[in-house]
């Protein structure tokens, strides 16, 4: 069955519980919630939950890809919108007709058997009498029939999450991730054939995945029924995966997180997603990174920001103060008569850049007032206040006017 026919039978929006005009963010949010509830690790032995987990993963894979979503919406709109209709607007009941002998009327008024559109069977499911198979394939796959038939179905993309400390996110790290998903069968190595055997070229279609047939003055191509359009046959299927080449299992992946990753960023791991069937390419794995806030550091792009507590005397007289960085500490010179709240810049001591080098360290000075002074310190402050007044300094000069 072609993926586009599956699209007609499946409502991906309903699978995820979102509206048809939902944003990509809403789709991702709904998927994460359902995937967390239905994950096989949380429902061991629950085949119904596992089946729903696969369904929501496939729905998310299509709807989160703008091109796939557009094609999916157009496919369903074409058949539900009356371009092919039978008695009413769209297929009866809103679904895809399963009866091979059901006839429909096109917008031109001509009758046809909907089973013929996909190269299906006649009434009663007998021998194929199809005629529109290659029309449908050409409409949606936009490629040659032979490449469409023999191209295996790629596995779905998957998404998982990880949480990092601020320093690990800024400097980069490697984290192990536990993923439970359909993966290549370890017994047959994804071929679907029993160990010691291998798939053979389908003799009915000579490996093309299509068979040709003449009907009157017309010639038609349709998917080979012997190999379901794959071009190969498995005579002795692998008993562990029932010939699919795929089995749900838990695996640990060591993921390298690049330096400078930010909260909410997605990292793509090519080929680490759901396995394709019978040796088809795997989908991709997307890792959403969450970064825990740090009590000392914050970021502005690749610049590292710190707020430095200083005394009044350090601002007035000047000082050199040790300031922490991501990889040690650095001495920062505070010029005399520095104002409270001023930001001092230290070049190249910020967050590493992917292109090389690093951002800057931005140090903002903030006066720390002592909670209590002894008699000597209080007397010194009084003398300082008197000297300040004698010098004519007014901290509120021009303020409030």
UniProtKB/TrEMBL annotation:
<keyword id="KW-0963">Cytoplasm</keyword>
<feature type="repeat" description="CXXCXGXG motif">
    <location>
        <begin position="238"/>
        <end position="245"/>
    </location>
</feature>
<comment type="similarity">
    <text>Belongs to the DnaJ family.</text>
</comment>
<feature type="domain" description="Cytochrome c">
    <location>
        <begin position="167"/>
        <end position="389"/>
    </location>
</feature>
<keyword id="KW-0408">Iron</keyword>
<comment type="function">
    <text>Participates actively in the response to hyperosmotic and heat shock by preventing the aggregation of stress-denatured proteins and by disaggregating proteins, also in an autonomous, DnaK-independent fashion. Unfolded proteins bind initially to DnaJ; upon interaction with the DnaJ-bound protein, DnaK hydrolyzes its bound ATP, resulting in the formation of a stable complex. GrpE releases ADP from DnaK; ATP binding to DnaK triggers the release of the substrate protein, thus completing the reaction cycle.</text>
</comment>
<dbReference type="InterPro" id="IPR036869">
    <property type="entry name" value="J_dom_sf"/>
</dbReference>
<feature type="binding site">
    <location>
        <position position="238"/>
    </location>
    <ligand>
        <name>Zn(2+) 1</name>
    </ligand>
</feature>
<feature type="binding site">
    <location>
        <position position="205"/>
    </location>
    <ligand>
        <name>Zn(2+) 2</name>
    </ligand>
</feature>
<feature type="binding site">
    <location>
        <position position="188"/>
    </location>
    <ligand>
        <name>Zn(2+) 1</name>
    </ligand>
</feature>
<feature type="domain" description="J">
    <location>
        <begin position="11"/>
        <end position="76"/>
    </location>
</feature>
<feature type="binding site">
    <location>
        <position position="241"/>
    </location>
    <ligand>
        <name>Zn(2+) 1</name>
    </ligand>
</feature>
<keyword id="KW-0235">DNA replication</keyword>
<dbReference type="InterPro" id="IPR036410">
    <property type="entry name" value="HSP_DnaJ_Cys-rich_dom_sf"/>
</dbReference>
<feature type="repeat" description="CXXCXGXG motif">
    <location>
        <begin position="224"/>
        <end position="231"/>
    </location>
</feature>
<feature type="zinc finger region" description="CR-type">
    <location>
        <begin position="172"/>
        <end position="250"/>
    </location>
</feature>
<dbReference type="Pfam" id="PF01556">
    <property type="entry name" value="DnaJ_C"/>
</dbReference>
<dbReference type="InterPro" id="IPR009056">
    <property type="entry name" value="Cyt_c-like_dom"/>
</dbReference>
<feature type="domain" description="CR-type">
    <location>
        <begin position="172"/>
        <end position="250"/>
    </location>
</feature>
<keyword id="KW-0349">Heme</keyword>
<dbReference type="Pfam" id="PF00684">
    <property type="entry name" value="DnaJ_CXXCXGXG"/>
</dbReference>
<feature type="binding site">
    <location>
        <position position="202"/>
    </location>
    <ligand>
        <name>Zn(2+) 2</name>
    </ligand>
</feature>
<keyword id="KW-0862">Zinc</keyword>
<dbReference type="InterPro" id="IPR001305">
    <property type="entry name" value="HSP_DnaJ_Cys-rich_dom"/>
</dbReference>
<feature type="binding site">
    <location>
        <position position="224"/>
    </location>
    <ligand>
        <name>Zn(2+) 2</name>
    </ligand>
</feature>
<keyword id="KW-0143">Chaperone</keyword>
<keyword id="KW-0346">Stress response</keyword>
<keyword id="KW-0863">Zinc-finger</keyword>
<dbReference type="InterPro" id="IPR008971">
    <property type="entry name" value="HSP40/DnaJ_pept-bd"/>
</dbReference>
<keyword id="KW-0479">Metal-binding</keyword>
<feature type="repeat" description="CXXCXGXG motif">
    <location>
        <begin position="202"/>
        <end position="209"/>
    </location>
</feature>
<feature type="binding site">
    <location>
        <position position="227"/>
    </location>
    <ligand>
        <name>Zn(2+) 2</name>
    </ligand>
</feature>
<dbReference type="Pfam" id="PF00226">
    <property type="entry name" value="DnaJ"/>
</dbReference>
<comment type="subunit">
    <text>Homodimer.</text>
</comment>
<dbReference type="InterPro" id="IPR001623">
    <property type="entry name" value="DnaJ_domain"/>
</dbReference>
<dbReference type="InterPro" id="IPR012724">
    <property type="entry name" value="DnaJ"/>
</dbReference>
<keyword id="KW-0677">Repeat</keyword>
<feature type="compositionally biased region" description="Basic and acidic residues">
    <location>
        <begin position="49"/>
        <end position="58"/>
    </location>
</feature>
<protein>
    <recommendedName>
        <fullName>Chaperone protein DnaJ</fullName>
    </recommendedName>
</protein>
<feature type="binding site">
    <location>
        <position position="185"/>
    </location>
    <ligand>
        <name>Zn(2+) 1</name>
    </ligand>
</feature>
<dbReference type="InterPro" id="IPR002939">
    <property type="entry name" value="DnaJ_C"/>
</dbReference>
<feature type="region of interest" description="Disordered">
    <location>
        <begin position="35"/>
        <end position="70"/>
    </location>
</feature>
